[in-house]
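User: Quick sanity check before I run a bigger batch. Here is a single chain. Can you write out its predicted 3D structure?
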Amino acid sequence: MATAAILFALTALGGATMAAIRLSGKPYPPLWLAAGHGLFAASGLSVLGYTAATETLPTLGQIALGMFLLTAGGGFFLLAGFHLRNRPLPIPFVLGHGALAIASFVALLIAIYG
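Assistant: Done. Predicted structure follows.
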């Protein structure tokens, strides 16, 4: 779970950068940044999912996994529905995506360090 937490921390750095870009008035961040953010998120999800499949994951860890899956769905929606269509990312959705990601990350950290 610690490896997943590190990957999600790196994901958060990219996410915060992208949110700042959007909030600065630009319609969307560079595609390379969004792709890197998604790659780290998918890696964190893969590690956490593997952990859940091969070890006993605490209940809060399972909840964090579910929350991260919802967050990933929202991120994919932002990418496919807006970014790849050159449409401005909706700020409320960007903020909601970030808030759910933060809550998921906090749940994971509590599951790890209790």
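The helical segments are 2-23, 31-54, 59-81, 91-113.

User: Great, the batch can go ahead then.
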